[in-house]
Each structure stands twice: as structure tokens, then as C-alpha cells.
Design brief:
Layout (H helix, E strand, L loop, with lengths): L2 E8 L1 H5 L3 H8 L5 E8 L3 H7 L9 H9 L7 E9 L1 H9 L12 H5 L1 E2 L5 E2 L2 E3 L3 H11 L26
Antiparallel strand pairs: 1-3, 1-6, 2-3, 4-5
Inosine-5'-diphosphate (IDP) binds next to loops.
């Protein structure tokens, strides 16, 4: 409870089905602030790290393919929502993990499906608790990609190759 932040991903099925606007509209009911947003091409490495707690599940391989976009498009929209009780508010609107059991007016209940191979295509990810939220946000975003200092930072001088406009 209190001021929190949570990672939201609009998964590849959500993007392919042009659900981005609908999902963001629905999430705006929370009156939380978006403090970061970007389109990400999901590597296998990122996907496996994100879902590492599910590594032993029978659906893990299919889940990794799904989030990497093998069935839809190779991208997700990653966002960080910030504000009072953010984690529970977003989870409530997202709905239950199983889209067939989710409240029909939740995002997953409305737009999700279970494929014939058993993948829960539930269009959205939302962090489960503050510890996971912190781990996930730090995995998907660099500090300078967020407009609020939601976690402590340190300064580091780093030499790396970047692309600039020609
Ligand atoms: P959550 O997304 O509601 O937090 P998790 O248990 O963290 O649920 O699972 C991560 C994702 O893995 C789900 O959103 C869903 O896409 C997929 N998933 C979870 N459980 C199953 C299952 O029993 N069968 C198929 N896919 C599943
Ligand atoms: Mg989860």
C-alpha cells in the first residue's frame, strides 16, 4: 500500500489486435501516472529473466515464445505506472491470470483467450508485488528512461557505443 510503481506490459497479442488504446483507456480509470513507456523488441534473454520464477512450469517454453512475439509481433509496449496502491489497482483492472476465469469486464476477461496449445494469451502483464515490481522495472528500464526517481540511483561514468542521428 502507499505510493507504489508497477510494470505493465502490453503483450504481443495486445499489440497485434490493436488493443493498446483500449487497454490504456481502461488503465486510466486508476488515475495513476505513467512515468515511463517504450516499445521493446523482446529478446529470449530478457523474456527468460522476466519470467525466471516460472522456469519449471510445463508452459514455460510456450510462454517465452509468446512474450517474444513468435505468434504475433516481435514487440511489447512496456510502461511504468506510479501512484497510490498502484500494484493492486492495476492487477484488479487486468483481471485473473486465466482469461477464461477473469472478470468479463477486466482487460484479460475482455480480450484474452487460451490457445489450442494451452497458452494463456492474456494481453497484459502487471507486477504482482512491490519486490517483483522493483525487479521488473529495473530489468526493463534504465533510470533515465523514467520521469520520476522512483528508486535510488548512483552516478557512473560509462563509455559505450550508442546510435545518434546522422
Ligand atoms: P500473472 O501474469 O497473472 O502474474 P503468472 O503466474 O505470473 O501470472 O504467469 C505469467 C504468465 O504466464 C501469465 O500471464 C500467462 O500468460 C502465463 N500462464 C500462467 N499460468 C499459465 C498456465 O497455467 N497455462 C498457460 N499459461 C500460463
Ligand atoms: Mg506474474
Amino acid at each position: 500500500m502507499g505510493i507504489e510503481q508497477t510494470l505493465v506490459l502490453i503483450k504481443p497479442d495486445g499489440l497485434v489486435k490493436s488493443l493498446t488504446g483500449n487497454i490504456i483507456s481502461k488503465l486510466s480509470e486508476t488515475e495513476l501516472k505513467i512515468v515511463g513507456a517504450k516499445i521493446v523488441r523482446v529478446s529470449r534473454e530478457l523474456a527468460e529473466e522476466h519470467y525466471k520464477h516460472l522456469k519449471d512450469k510445463p508452459f514455460f517454453e510456450e510462454l517465452i515464445k509468446y512474450i517474444c512475439g513468435e505468434y504475433h509481433t516481435r514487440r511489447v509496449l512496456a510502461m511504468v505506472y506510479h501512484g497510490d496502491n498502484a500494484i493492486a489497482k492495476v492487477r484488479r483492472i487486468a483481471g485473473d491470470t486465466n482469461p477464461e476465469e477473469a472478470d468479463p469486464i477486466s482487460i484479460r476477461g475482455k480480450y484474452g483467450r487460451i490457445t489450442t496449445s494451452g497458452v494463456y494469451e492474456n494481453v497484459i502483464h502487471a507486477s504482482e508485488n512491490p519486490k517483483e515490481a522493483e525487479r521488473e522495472i529495473k530489468l526493463w528500464f534504465r533510470p533515465d528512461e523514467l520521469v520520476e526517481r522512483i528508486y535510488p540511483v548512483i552516478k557512473k561514468t560509462e563509455v559505450r557505443e550508442v546510435l545518434i542521428w546522422k
